[in-house]
Amino acid sequence: MINTNAFDYINVLDKAADASWLRNEAIANNLSNVDTPGYKRQDVSFETELEKALSNSRYISMDEKVKNVELAKLNPRPFTDYAGYSYRLDGNNVDVDQENVYLAENQLRYQGLMASIQSEFQNLQAVIK
């Protein structure tokens, strides 16, 4: 098999899209539990892990950084946000307005990631022609 790095960006974008999808599920879960006493909002950590993975060295190109990303170690992780914080008497820390902003932001991020993946495939298609 030919050893190629043609899919490096696509693989990283795919991981980011998976993380965005997981974040969308967490936000939807937060919204559905807005009235559940004691519920703490959930979120997904991915951007900081990607940033760490891409900042291996200041003196190499982005192509080289993406090539060196270990995809197996680049996994989105759900976490409880502000577990000890609650501004409501029932112990719930979900703010509907803030969650809707997070949802809109995440949907835009996901659409951008899908457009980027499509663009990468179009680039590959152009090279093949």
Can you put this structure into words, describing what you see?
With 129 residues, the protein is mainly α. It has one domain. Helices cover 56% and strands 6% of the residues. The protein contains four helices and two strands. It has a two-stranded antiparallel ribbon with strand order 1-2. Helix 1 runs antiparallel to helix 4. The longest helix is centred in the last third of the chain and has 33 residues, at 96-128.
Biggest sheet statistics: 2 strands, antiparallel
Our Rg estimate from Cα atoms comes to 18 Å
Distance between the termini: 21 Å
The spatial strand order of the largest sheet comes to 1-2
Q: What percent strand?
A: 5-15%
Q: What's the rounded overall pLDDT mean?
A: 87
How many beta-strand segments?
2
Report helical residue fraction.
55-70%
User: Helix and strand succession?
Assistant: HEHHEH
* Count of spatially separate domains: 1
Shape: elongated
Give the helix/strand layout:
Elements: H1 8-32, E1 42-45, H2 47-54, H3 62-67, E2 77-80, H4 96-128
Antiparallel strand pairs: 1-2
What's this, in brief?
The chain has 129 residues and is mostly helical.
Features:
single chain, mainly alpha, 2 strands, 4 helices
